[in-house]
Amino acid sequence: MERNSYTQGLQIAFMGDPTEENQEFPFNDSSSAGFSNPNFSQGLQSHHDVRVFGFQQSSLDDRFSQLNLNDIENPTRIVGSDFGPAPIGLFPENSFNGRHVLRSLPSQNMVVDRSPNYSPSTFIEHNVFDFDTNTQRRTPPSERSYNLCDPMRSVNGLGSTMMRPSMHDHHHQPLHSPPPRQLPRENSSYYYIPPLTELKAGDICTVAKDRDRCLAFQKKLDNEVLTRGEIDMIFMEVKDHLHELMVHRFANYLIQKLFKAINNEQRTQLLLLLIRSHQRFFQVCTNLYGSRTIQKFIEIINIQEQKCILLSALKPIAITLAKDSNGHHLFEPCLKKFSSEETMHLMDGIIQHCVDIAINKSGCCALQQCLTHANDEVSGHFLVRIVANALFLSEDKYGNYVVQFVLQMGLPWVTSMIIGQLQGSFVSLCYSKYGSNVVEKCMKESEEQLSARVIIEILNDPDYLKVFGHDYGNFVIQSALWASKGHANLGIHNAIHCLIRKHYSFLQSSPFGRRILSAASKCRRST
C-alpha cells in the first residue's frame, strides 16, 4: 500500500498539471490526495537531506535536468530492497535491514553530466556495492564472491535470488538468475562428524537418522577410512536398534554399508538378531526400506550358515511376502543368489499356493519372477498348476498376466495345453476385458495350426457378429487379421475379409466396427 502511494506521489510531482506553476512536491501535507500513509510523509518531512524543488510549466526532460540528485549535505547509507535501491528519505539515517548497502554519497554539490559518454557513479546505477569494512572501498566486480551464505546477500540467513549485476559489467547474469549453487565439500563442516571416541552412547543412532551426517558415515565406510575398532564400535551401538534403523529412511543405508564392512562372524550375529523376533522381522520385510536392506544382505551373504539362517526365517512367511507390495521383491535376489537346492523349501509353499498368489496384484509379479529365475524342475511344477487353472486365471484381473507370461515363454507344449484348456471358451473370453488379452496372445504366440484353431472357433460361432461390434472383441478380430496374414495358408485371412465385406454397413455404423475396417484397410495396404 505504501509503495502504491509513493508511486502515486511521484506521478503528482513529475507529471503535475502544467497550468499550475511552482507546484510543490506533495509530501509536506500528510492529508494530500496522493498519499494515504501519514508515517511515510512524516518520515520524509523529518529527513533534512531531502530538498524538494518546484516545477514550472515545461517538458519532462527539462524538469529532470533541473534535478540535482547529489545535493545532499550529510552522507547517508541508503538501504536497497528487492525492488531496487530505496528512494531518499524512505529509511531513517544509518538504518540497515540486512540486505544491500550502497556507498555513501559525496557531501559537496555536483552537477550531473547528461552527455552520452557519461558513466554514472552514484546510487542511480541501481548497482549492488560490496564494501570491505577494513578499507572502506568498493570491491571490483571481478573480485566479488557470490556465496549463498554471505549475510550481505541474504535475507534471514537464506540465499537471495535477486543478484543484480552492474550495468557496465558485460558478463553479468540475468536480473533474477541466482549464482551457481556451491555444494559443500566433503571436508567441510557440513559433513563434519566428531571422532567416534567423543560420541556418547546412543549418538551413533542419532547420527544415522540424520541425512547429511549419515551420508558422511557412508562415505567413510565406502572409502575405508574407519579403523576396525571404529567399525566394531558402530556395530555394537546399532545392533540393539537394528530393526528400528533398518526401516528408517536414512539409517537403512548405513546398515547396508555396515553389513558389507563387518566380518562374517558379525554378519552372522546381526542376522540372528534380525530374526530373533519373528514379528519384527516380518515388519522389516514388508517395509519399503527394510525390504531393500534385506535384499542387500542377500547379495553380501557368502557362507552357508548365513544362507540357512535367512532362508529358514523366510520360509514360514513366504506366501504372505509374495502377496506384499514390498515383500515380493525378496524372491528375485534369493533365486539369483542361492542354488535351487537351497531355495527348494522356500519354493514349496509358493508352488502349492501359486493360483492364490497369481490372482494377487503383487503375487502375480512374484510368480513371474519365480518362473524367470527358477530351474526347469521348479518351473515345471508351477506350469502344471497354471495350465490346469488357465481358464480361471484368464478371466482374473491379475491372473491373466500370468497366463500371458507363460504363453510368452515360447514353450510349445505349454502353449498347446493352454489352448486346449481354453478351447470352447474363446468367444466368451472375447467379451471379457482380461480374457480378450489372453485370446490375442494365444493367436500371436502360438504356431500356425494352433492359431488357426482359435480363429476358426470364433468365426464359426453363431453370434460372431457380436464379437465384431464388441468393445473388447473388436481387438481380437484385429489381431486375427494380422496373425492370419502371416500364415502359409491364407484361407482364414481371406475368410475374415469376406465377412468384413459382407457386414460392411453394420461395421460402418458401429464405432468398434469402424476400427476393424481401418485395420483391414491397413492390412491390405501392407501386403
TrEMBL record:
Which InterPro entries does the record cross-reference, listed alphabetically?
A: ARM-like, ARM-type_fold, PUM-HD, Pumilio_RNA-bd, Pumilio_RNA-bd_rpt
The reply to whether GTP-binding figures as a keyword in the UniProt entry is no
Grouped into one coarse class, the protein's main location is cytoplasm
Q: Name one GO biological process term.
A: regulation of translation
Q: List locations, semicolon-separated.
A: Cytoplasm
Provide any one GO MF term from the record.
Answer: mRNA binding
SUPFAM superfamilies referenced in this protein's UniProt entry, alphabetically? ARM repeat
Q: Which UniProt keywords apply?
A: Cytoplasm, Repeat, RNA-binding, Translation regulation
Taking every annotated instance into account, which residue ranges of this chain make up the domain PUM-HD? Answer: 177-524
Start and stop residues of the Pumilio repeats: 237-272, 274-312, 385-420, 421-457
Query: Where are the residues of the annotated region Disordered?
Result: 163-184
Pfam families given for it?
A: PUF
User: Where is it found, in Gene Ontology cellular component terms?
Assistant: cytoplasm
Protein name per Swiss-Prot or TrEMBL: PUM-HD domain-containing protein
